[in-house]
């Protein structure tokens, strides 16, 4: 009788424990319920650590995986989640499926989360493979959404030296916004990710404006010492044209309208002829060798070509005056 009372007391304590976890707890007859100091164990064998384990599911045997099933029922369908430790892969799987058959004890269902034995985590409704990286998402819809109550929402990527001894570099990308504006940004913290010194290198505003404060290189044959804000290894297509806006610094000091000033000293054509014979190009125009080695500045070249056109116009006007004078002189002689 004393043994019966003792066992009845153990059962009461076990039921009280499960009443804390939730109502409607059912025990599978094939399993044993064991209460020990420190916790409760569903078990088909195995060791229960009284010092550390509070609740344990043991499934010792060559053909058995340890699993836990959570089920809800709305009168038609059973929504079932299973959590099980696979004896072969040593991974922990979280699966979900819906069934109308209460006798359907299928455990696999649809994988929703996987935690591998080497610390990799996989998430998503298409997570039918083991995660290939530390964090792997596989989904039929958008894979990631991040919300923040205030401040920018961002991701920080940090490259450490071995054994996390020191930081080589930290980059951050994210979303910053206010009541009427927003922007996506990419920047660099350098080696001080916890402090100041953040530099933004790329920004897309909600107005459609893309900002690159430093330089942008397109292509891989520009070279390491790129002095340009935009460097392109290849051609550039433009539908409506390219407009250069003077900034008072990186622009020709004077547009060549000065050629038409009254005091402009145009070079004599005989001097131009002598220069061409010697150098095989016009004065102030770079030679083929210079263009091949140094390239050309489009604004400066356009200004130079315009200057030569204006000088040519003056030559033509002067020649026209001489022709008219000769025709008048010829008519008078008649």
What would you say this structure looks like, in words?
By secondary structure, the chain is an alpha+beta fold. Helices cover 22% and strands 28% of the residues.
Brief account:
With 334 residues, the chain is α+β, with helices and mostly antiparallel strands.
Could you spell the SSE succession in H and E letters? Answer: HEEEEEEEEEEEEEEEEHHH
Shape: elongated
Amino-to-carboxy terminus distance: 157 Å
- The fraction of residues in strands falls at 25-35%
Structural class: alpha+beta
Continuous helix count? 4
Which percent bin holds the helix content?
Answer: 10-25%
Q: Quick one: biggest sheet?
A: 6 strands, mixed
Report the average pLDDT across residues.
78
Q: Which stretches are poorly predicted, pLDDT < 50 over at least 5 residues?
A: 2-9, 15-41
The count of DSSP E runs of length 2 or more, i.e. the number of strands, is: 16
List the helices and strands and how they pair.
Layout: H1 2-21, E1 32-36, E2 39-43, E3 55-58, E4 66-73, E5 78-85, E6 92-99, E7 110-115, E8 121-123, E9 135-137, E10 153-160, E11 167-177, E12 182-190, E13 199-205, E14 210-211, E15 216-218, E16 230-232, H2 269-279, H3 288-294, H4 298-333
Parallel strand pairs: 2-3, 8-9, 15-16
Antiparallel strand pairs: 1-2, 4-5, 5-6, 6-7, 7-8, 10-11, 11-12, 12-13, 13-14
Provide tags for this entry.
disordered N terminus; alpha+beta; 334 residues; 4 helices; 5-stranded antiparallel beta sheet; single chain; 6-stranded mixed beta sheet; elongated
């Amino acid at each position: 009788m004393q043994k019966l009372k003792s066992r009845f007391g153990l059962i009461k304590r076990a039921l009280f424990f499960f009443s804390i976890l939730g109502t409607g707890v059912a025990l599978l007859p094939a399993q044993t319920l064991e209460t020990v100091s420190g916790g409760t164990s569903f078990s088909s064998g195995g060791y229960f650590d009284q010092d550390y384990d509070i609740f344990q599911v043991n499934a010792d045997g060559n053909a058995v995986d340890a699993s836990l099933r959570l089920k809800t029922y709305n009168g038609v369908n059973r929504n079932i989640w299973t959590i099980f430790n696979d004896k072969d892969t040593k991974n922990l799987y979280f699966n979900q499926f819906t069934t109308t058959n209460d006798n359907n004890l299928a455990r696999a269902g649809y994988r929703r989360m996987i935690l591998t034995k080497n610390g990799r985590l996989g998430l998503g409704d298409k997570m039918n493979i083991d995660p290939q990286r530390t964090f792997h998402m596989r989904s039929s819809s958008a894979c990631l959404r991040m919300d923040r109550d205030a401040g920018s929402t961002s991701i920080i990527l940090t490259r450490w030296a071995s054994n996390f001894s020191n930081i080589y570099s930290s980059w951050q990308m994210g979303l910053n916004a206010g009541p009427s504006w927003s922007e996506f940004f990419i920047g660099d913290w350098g080696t001080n990710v916890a402090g100041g010194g953040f530099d933004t290198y790329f920004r897309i505003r909600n107005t459609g404006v893309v900002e690159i404060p430093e330089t942008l290189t397109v292509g891989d044959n520009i070279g390491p010492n790129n002095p340009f804000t935009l460097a392109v290894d290849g051609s550039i297509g433009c539908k409506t044209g390219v407009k250069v806006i003077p900034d008072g610094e990186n622009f020709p000091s004077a547009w060549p309208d000065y050629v038409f000033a009254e005091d402009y000293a145009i070079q004599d054509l005989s001097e131009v002829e002598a220069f061409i014979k010697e150098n095989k190009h016009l004065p102030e125009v770079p030679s083929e060798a210079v263009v091949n080695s140094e390239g050309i500045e489009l604004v400066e070249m356009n200004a130079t070509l315009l200057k030569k056109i204006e000088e040519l116009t003056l030559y033509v006007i002067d020649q026209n005056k001489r022709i008219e004078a000769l025709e008048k002189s010829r008519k008078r002689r008649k």
